[in-house]
Structures are given as C-alpha cells and as structure tokens.
Amino acid sequence: MLRLPPFAYVAPSSVEEVVEALHTHGPDAMIVAGGTDLYPNMKRRQFEPKVLVGLANVPELRAIRGTPEAGLTVGAGATLREVSAHPVIQEHYYAVAKAAGLVSTTPLRNMGTIGGNLCVDPRCNYYDMPFPWRKAVGFCMKKDGDICLVAPGSPRCWALSSSDIAPVSLALEAKLRLIGPQGTRALEANDFYRDDGIEYLTKERDEILTEIQLPPAKGLRTTYWKLRRRGSFDFPILGVAAALTMDDGTVTRARLALGAVASRPEEVVEAREFLEGKEPTEADVHAVAEAAFELAKPLDNADGHFYWRKRMVRPYVQGALKELLRMGPPESWPREYN
Amino acid sequence: MAKRGLGKGRVKGESQDIWLRLMVNGRRCDVVAPVQKTLLEVLREDLGLTGTKHGCELGECGTCGILVNDLFVLSCLTLPVDIQGKEVTTVEGLAHNGKLHPLQQAFSELGAAQCGYCTPGFLMAAKALLDTDPSPTREAIQDGLSGNLCRCTGYLKIFEAVELAADRMGAERRKAATAPQVAP
Amino acid sequence: MTDFSVIGKPRGRVDGPAKVTGQAQFADDLHLPGMLFAKLLRSPVPHGRIKALDTSRAEALSGVVAVLTGKDLPEKYGILPVSQDEEALCTEKVRYVGDPIAAVAAVDEDTAERATELIALELEELPSYMTIEEALEKEGEPIETLRFGPNVHKAVSLEFGDVESAFAKADHTREDLFFYEGSTHLPMEQHAAVARWEPEGKVTLWSSTQTPHYVHRALAKVLGLPMNRIRVIATPVGGGFGGKSDPFNHEIVVAKLAIVTGKPVKLTLTREEVFYAHRGRHPTLMWVKTGVRKDGAITAMHFRSFLDGGAYGSYGVVSTYYTGALQTTTYKIPAYKFEGTRVYTNKPPCGPKRGHGTPQPRFAIEVHFEHLARELGMDPIDFRLKNLVEPFTYTANWLRITSCGLRECVEKVLEASGFRDKRGKLPEGRGVGFGLSAYMSGASLPVYWNDMPHSEVQLKVDRSGTVALFSGAIDIGQGSDQVLAATTAEVLGLEPEDIHLITADTDLTPIDLGSYSSRVTFMAGNAAIQAAERLRDQIAEAMAAKLDVPTDRVAFRNGRVMDAQRPEGGVSWEEACAVAEAAQGNLMSRGAYKPPELSGPYKGSGVGPSPAYSYSACVAEVTADPESGVVEVDKVWIAHDVGRSLNPTLVHGQVEGSVYMGLGEVLLEEQVFRHGLHKIPSMLEYKSPTTKDMPPIETILVETVDPEGPFGAKECGQGPLLPVIPAVANAVEDAIGARFHEIPITPEKVLSAMDKAARGEEPLIGPTSLPDYHLGEVLRVDPPDGKKVELFPMHEET
Lengths: 338, 184, 798
Known about the structure:
heterotrimer, B: alpha/beta, globular, disordered N terminus, C: alpha+beta, Aldehyde Oxidoreductase, domain 3, seven-stranded mixed sheet, 36 strands, 25% strand
C-alpha cells in the first residue's frame, strides 16, 4: 500500500485564514483542494510538504456567480464535475465545460477542482513515478536531482503542462484572481504560467488562486479538443482550445491555445492575424494549423510518440476551428480522439 | 493525545493523531488515526471493512471507489478528516436487511464479477450512476463507469448487469407508484 | 444424456454473492493478530554484481523485527525442474531493475520501507542486455551461460517429415518476419502473501496464487522443510491471467520471515512491483516460410521464433516450445520445421500470459496466410478452409486432434459478421479482418514428472445432506468454483448452491495442479463428475434396496431420489443420504483425472499435447484514420468451439474477457523499457482499455461435445484471445492498406506506414532481420502418418 508521508493538516474556514496559514508556514506548506494531483505526488514523494492547508472547509471558493452578459466567475474550488455540469457554462462557455468533463475520470472529477487543474503540476514520465523507480533511473532536477532526463544537456526542466483547463483559460482570456498577504491581484491567464517545468506558475507560494473570471459571452464561440489514447483516465497529450468572437460571419477576435506541447499552455498568436477581421477561409484555417504545428515541440516524456503528438496538432487545430466556424459538415472535419 | 478536529492554523510538528468521527454505512465510527491516513486505509485497517479493495493507491484504477454523500469518490485520495459529518457508503453498506441491492444481484447473476476484485468499486460507481440517472443508456453507463478498470470481463457483462438492475429498480418503482394506497 | 438441469443453463456463480458483498477474502484482506509487514529492497540496476550489503542500520531501526538477505535463502528454485535459476533474494548478481536483494519485517509497512532504505548496498554495474539482438550479439559478461551459449536459455530445433523435399514440391513459397511486443497481465489485485508460523512447527502461507501445489514444492525446497510442514492456501485470486502461476520470491520471503520471527508476516506488492513480478507475454521475433501447391494445399512450413525471456527461466522452456507446437492444430501441415530460441535479457522475467506462447505465432501465421493466399490468387478465407485440420486426426508433430468445430466456427463467424460482403468493399478507412486459432484444454503433462493424477476431488456428505467438495483448484475468476459445483450438482440432482466448496488448501484438499493452461474445467471437472457418480452410485444402491427396484432405476432429480418409473414418489436428498449412511457408513467418494498418454516419440513432445483443443474464429471490423493513425475497433464477432457450454453466462464472460485482452495487446498495451528500466510501471501509463474503449462483441458458441471432456466441455478462457490480434491487423490492412507485421498497432506506426505508401514504398511495418544465431543439430521426427486416433472417455453418460 502506497501511503502518504506524515504532515500537519490545517483546515481553515476562510480565504483569509488560508492566506494566513500559507504565510505562517512558508515554503513548508502546500495547498490541497481535491487532492487528486497532490496526494499521488506525495505518495510518490515528489512533494514532501510539512504542512497541508486544506480547502475543504472554505465554501466561498466553490461559488459560481455572474451572468454570461457580464461575465461568469467560477470559484477555484468548484469541482470539475460542477463546472462541466453547470448549465450556463455548458451553454455559453462550452470549452470550459467540455475540458472539465474530459479531465481524468468520473470520481476524480467529483473530487478535483478547476483551480487544481489550472495549477496541476507539469508532468513527465521520468518524474511521475514511484520513489524507488526515480531513484533507480537517477533523480531529475524537478525533484531530488540536478539534470533533466528528457533533455540531459538542458539547464531547465521540460515537464509538460498537462492541464485541460489551462489552454482554455488562455483562449478565453480568462482572468485569474489571486489573494496573498500583499492583497488581491488579477492576472491574465497567459501571465499565470511560466515556461519552466518546475517554476511553472507566477503565483507566489503564499498566494491562493481563488477564482477564474470568464469574459462576457456575447458572440463568443469556444471549443476544446483533447487528444489521448484511451477514452478515460489519461491526461491530454495535446489540447487545442479555441475561442472566436463572431459578429455575423466575421471573426472579430480569435484566440487559439495549445496544451500539452510545452511546459506552459501556449497561445498560437498567428490565429489573430489569420482569422480576425474576416470570414476565414479553409486556407486561413490551414495557415493557423501550420503555425500551431511549428509552435508545438512535444518531447519524449508523455504517452504517445512525440512525433505523432506533433503531427496531430494540424488536424486538431483545423478540427477545432472548423467546428467554431461551422465550416462544412462535421463529417468533413478531422476526428477527435478522447 | 488525540485531538478532536483540527485547528485553523498554526499547527506545528510532524504528524498528528486525530480523533475522527465518521459515519460509515449508517453507523457512527470513532477512530483515532494519523491525519495522513487515507480513508482507504482507515476503512480497511481500522474499521475492518476490507470489502473496499485497492489496485494502485494513486487514483489510476477506481478499485477503491466509495460513496461520500452519494458522490462516487476514491478512498485512496480522501482524507477522513475532510469528510467528517458526511455519509460514507462502502460495498458492505449496499445490501439492506440481508437483501442484496439490485446491482449486487445483477452483478452476481450475470457473471459481471469474475475475479471480483474490481467489483466493489464498480458497484459503487454504478450506484452513484443509477442514483442520478435511473435508466441510463449504454453510453451513459460506459461514461459513468469510466473511472474503473477491470481486466477480466471486457466490461460487457458489467454494462448488462447495470442495465438489468436499472430495469428491475424501475419496475419496483413503478409497482410502488401504482400500488393502492393503504391508510396507516 | 442431454436432459440436463444445471449444465448448459445460464446462471450466476456460486462465488458471486461473496464477491458482490465484499465478503470474498483476498490475500491482502487477511489481518492476523500481531502481524508484521514486509518490504523488499530491489535492485536499481538492470545487471550488476553485489559487492557489499550491510543491513546493520536497518536492523537497528526501531520497529524492525527481522532482515533477510540472499544468504538466508541460498537455495535456487523455479517453476520448471529444468530451470532452477531464481533466488528469493539475490546472492551474487542482480539481473533486472526490481530484482529483490533484501527483505525487512517490521511492525508496519512504513517502518519496513524506511528500513530497506537504510540497507547499504554496493553494486558493480555489468553490461545490460535489453533486447533479443543485444542478448545474442553484444559483447560483455553474459547474464547466464548455459549449454546453448551466452544468454541463451533454450534452443530447440525440430523437424517433422522431410521439410526440404516438401518445400521442393511447392508451387509457391513465401517468407515473412514478425515481431510481437511484450505485454503484462495487470491483474487488478496486487500480489499479496501472508505467512504464519504455527505452534506445532509448521508454516502456513496464504497467497494470491494460481498454483498452490507448485508453490508448496518450491517453499519446501528453498526453506529446507519437508512438504508436510508447510501448508499453502490459495486465496481467491484477484486476476491471474498466468501472472500468478510461478512460485514468487515474496511468497518465499514471507514464509521465511514468519519462521524467523515466529509472527505472522504480510507482504503486498505495490503496483510498481507488480510490473516487476511480471511473467507476461514474451516479446517475440518470428520468421515463417510456407510452401503451397497451386490448389492452395500447404506442403511445408518452417517457423523460427526468438523469445525475449527476461532475467529468469520461469516457464520459458515451455513457452519456447509453445511458439512452435500449435501451428499444426489448425492447419494440415504435412511437413513442419520449428526452431525456437529463448534469450535472457535484463528485464523482469516473462512467462505465461493468457495464450502462453501461442498468440505470437498465431498473429504471424494468420497475417502471413493473407499475403500468401493473395499471391496465389486465392481468397484468404478459401485458402484457410482448404487447409483446415480435420477432427480425429494426428498432426505432423504427433498432436492428437479429437473434437474440432473449427470449420463451423469459421462459417458461423463469417455469416454473422457479413465478412464476405464487407471484405474489400467497405468505404476507405474501414475494414474487416479475420483470424482463427486453437488452444489446449490443459497440458497433458504436469510441470514436474510424476505418474499421479492431475486433479482429484473428494466429496463427503454430512447429516444435513450438505455435500462438501474438496478440490485443490483455485478460482482465479475463470469460474472453477462454479464448474466444480455445477458438474457435481448435475450428477446428484442438486443445485450448485447445495455444494459446499473447500478449495486450494494443501492440508485439506486433494491435488489440483493449478489454474493454468486452461486445464481446470477439463480435468477437475472430470474428477468431480467421477466423484459425484461414485457418490450417486452408493446412494442408489442403498435406495434401490429401500425402493425395491434395480439400482439403475434410481434417479436423482430436483433434490430428490426416486424410482425413475415413479418420479412422483421417492424421498428427499437428505433422506436418501440417511438411508445410504445407515446402510454403508460415512458417505464419501473420490474422483481423479489423469490425461491419457499423448506425447509423441521424441524429446520435446511433452509440450503441445492436450486431451482436447478448443477452436476459435474471429472477425474484427475497424475504422482506421489515415490522417491521425488511430485505429478503432467497431465490432468483434467471435465463434468458439467450447465442446459443450457448461454455463453460457460464464463461457460468454471468458470469451469476452479474452477478446478484451487481445484488443489491449494489439492496439494499446506495451511492456517496454528505457534506460534499463520499465518505462511505465503504472496503471495510468500502461494503457489498459477502459469502459469507453470496448467495442460490442458478438459471441457464437459452437458445441462439438468432446468425447473426453466433462459433459463434453473444452476450454474457453485463453483460446478466444488468439485470433483477435491477427483479425485486427488484417482489418487494418483492409481499411487503409497498411500491413502490420508488428504489434501493437500504434498511431505513429500507422502514420509511418501511410508515409511509406505516399513515397511509393510497401506500407509494411515490422522487423527486417533476424539475429545471427545458429541452432545446434535438428531433431528429425517421422510424422505419425496413418496413426489411428484412440479415445479415452471417462464417463459413459457424456
């Protein structure tokens, strides 16, 4: 039986108390919400916090409020099940509902939170392994070692951003609200992430992600395409999130982001140039897909051959965009495999 | 000395033994255990409820699934301290008054349990599914059970068993609804 | 006798209620007072020499009760007498990452684990051999050198008939190379064992094992105790598939720790460790050449296999033979040559996984024949039908074929699937494929030489009329409990639930060799029928006297015993038992099954013979996306000749489970290594199909009523896996033209085939060469031409 290492557990009942606890315990403390990412990592001794700050008793974090007209605010503690089943999110922020509904499995969506998914520890199949295995292969720089086993000459860690919600938050230009000892701040989702497998968030250790603010939904069309080899359990080995704001047939705003191609979710900025201000053609869609293909640089540290994962970027971007642009019948789109 | 509940901050030190007050299968259970002991371990090792099995302890197989307030969750990733005051249901709590739950009956009849090791987890997932969707389509069953792995059956007998149980439970409900009302 | 009351009826299992209520006690569910917990220190390198091992810091840790090293258990063991190459704890060398070196027993698991980390271990790394080619060609200190050369565990070369002149008679020949990647059983239950030292100077072991008898023997050997001081109890096995058929180091270690500490000790493997225990599918490289006449008749076949055995022998000698033995059980091959080589590599040992050594050649042959038939201008199905083996014949390698429903299986599965209307006619990206196979209903020889029965059953009746059935067979999910209860109940006119089972306890139950080689229904079933008939006859004799009718007029039906001509009369089963006990004393009986002597007149003939072969034919329909490379199976049709379906519910379950496992192997699952380590030892990364990945399956049962099977039954738990893999590979070719001579068929390989096609090359994915290894002298054997098939039915009624 794999067991959790000992820790002290504090169960604050307000965000204020959470911040205080994080501040008090400093780097020894970690936040636990659903526990679906943190506990396995602790059992494999990838994380060894002395103190856990549990969010189970902080109901204010779970609220989903606002309107599609003004924008919706989703509490970071809302479970992935709650998010995927929320009628307003389903109708107006389809990509969010779909991505949340495709995370892992039914029980883990009942437990895991949207905030937890945004903060999911970047993954690597040299790292997400039990302690004896990591010891045998030689510890990597992400925990206990000093080299990257995927790219041994590299000075940095190449662990893979494996969140389904992260690319969606970029595409929607969601704002993330953080509360820390210095007060509250709101970040563009894009600024929440750093291109590093270890220091992958700009969040300070004593800050807590409290909510995700979704923009007004007028004219917004969104989708998320997830690639994985099985119909359940698996993390994305490619995620394509797209959000278009439409005015009649014209795209007024286009955002496309990729997940699971780097240590952070990556926006394909060319999508703005190729799609905005017009009624995009098939050639425009292909041009975006090509730009996305160039951007994606998967490595041999996740399921599926990295060459295949890269090749899948083209059809997935085309598929997601054609879906949003309603370009041709669905049978003519590339297929999604999840 | 075990401490009832937890503080809201400023806890120092390595590990805490805590006094847990759990509701399991309708019974109150008081347990003193280290806070890091998962519900899976407490059920099996402290409460002797070994019906809940485990296959990976990392949330990757669904074998240890149980219900917490009717929600299907994994006991290997649940801290008991977080679910105090909530209703925990394990496979031992499915049968009532010696009568098997229709899901148990159907699993047994249709050979949906071969080696039987994943069965408790599947039963709990199926119960959570039928509680919210009493007559699920085959696709809804595949979805509802998609957090559980089985290596024996190829799943088909499991799907059929859930369908059979759903049919029988539906028939029971209809029977109850049309039964003549008798004054108390 | 076809008027059965239990046999042939779909019904639940006798062990169902315990399994759906959580009451079935698996090994890890056992908790004994004062129990200690054990952990193993395992090798971090694939190949190395132990230079120093210091356990003093571990011993000093508070809570540690005992520490063992290889010195404490120096005796070597292994499942086969010819391969005694395993050590419970390594003494000099480690041979794979995960090879156990030391063991700790402590008051709890955490303490035991901390203690293993305090053991000071110094290893000298040796060159590692991670592939077949490396094992045969790389320089350096070998893992082991036996008489076949460095790193070669087994080499065999057999020729039946004059193959060279048979090839000369062929109008056409074709050669192909194939590779079948390794995969593992991934039972949901992690292996676990508990041992207790008994006050009378015995040790009891409870273990999740498919083979308690073989564990019993290995324990005696390694512990240096007589077998009568060891008791092995197999707990319900939470998934076996062959992966719990060897005696394991953790079983020996807990037994030794119980002896040393005097306390109960438990060891449950973590999921990572289950990947190290392994014994799964051998990665196998194959070459096949077949000669045919213009009319499609096969004149000769030459088959070569190279098996990647991993670090130890396990069942490997047998596995090697199995990659060659059963080719002849489906097709008439008048002249046949087989050369097999198994190498040692620095990976967890391979062994028997569902289908043991036969899915690999079955994949090769069924794909090879597609090409061969088309080159010949023949429809691949017609080609197969032309060459199908006939019932009640001998094969070139001396295998006795009895009942054989292969032709019926082929016809029925083709009809149900509409294969002939679909093949080559579905839209681009969709296709159908076909494959067929045979499998054994139990090996006719035991793992170690002896003259005794393979299965024995005892029955006894108490004053309640309860029939207690004692059998060494262990239910691993395949339904052996149900088979024992149902066959006994049928004979005695009772219900299966009336039979109380006591199984797999070496102190209490008579022999059953184990739940491997699909032997239990056939062998234990026959033993149970014999025991039940003998008990029935005793009661009939007493009741005949009471009813004043001839003995053969006493009938047993619906829990009553009566004059067959006056079925409304008679007495209850309990009363009849009382009459019989009064007349004869305690009511008990015994039955035993030993397979007939079926081995041919040559060395190596022990692998392959079985009292009966099951047959399967399969059609898979797939959608293959040339853009993504993803292959999805839309539906599987499978027809299986089970002899007689004792319980359709269970037979369907076995067939569906086999198809499922075959689909996992052909599309998803890989036991692969990187930097000398298992690449993905986790449930998440080892891609076992989920509920969302299962296509519908249509199962057709064919009943040939085998003359020697229990009520005519044959196996159904392994055979149906075999044709699934080539059926999918052939369907992919039908869909998109990509030829797979290698599995699993992963998306990047499909894309690679598509790229080849775009470049104008043959879209073939597979190996391109064989390693440079030459076998010794070939053993030439004359085929049993004209030998008459002799039958040995056990029970008149069947």
